[in-house]
Amino acid sequence: MDSILLVDTDILIDIGRNDETAVKRINNESRKYKLAISSITQMELIVGCRNKTEMKILDKFLERFEKN
Question: Most buried of 20, 35, 50, 56, CB within 10 angstroms?
Fold first, then answer.
């Protein structure tokens, strides 16, 4: 599993909203690729947090992704 798949913000937002299609897709892709996000995607998600609780949830969620 040397290939990296860069995941975009819109997919991560769908996953955060528990969109079934997005969740299934990311789970399938994680079996084939290392999942990564860009620093821009990370910042876009951080800006969307409304409070510290959401920020903690986001931090936990992003642990599964490599940062590029």
Answer: 35
Q: Is 56 exposed, middle or buried (0-12, 13-18, 19+ CB in 10 A)?
A: exposed
Q: DSSP code of 34?
A: E
How far is it, in rounded angstroms, from Cα 63 to Cα 61?
Answer: 6
Secondary element (H or E) of residue 39: helix 39-47
Per-residue pLDDT tens, the chain, 68 aa: give them.
579 999 999 999 999 999 999 999 999 999 999 999 999 999 999 999 999 999 999 999 999 999 87
CA distance 31 to 51: 32
Locus of tokens 């951080």: 46
Please name the residues in contact with 1: beta carbons below 8 A apart, sequence gap of 6 or more.
32, 33, 34
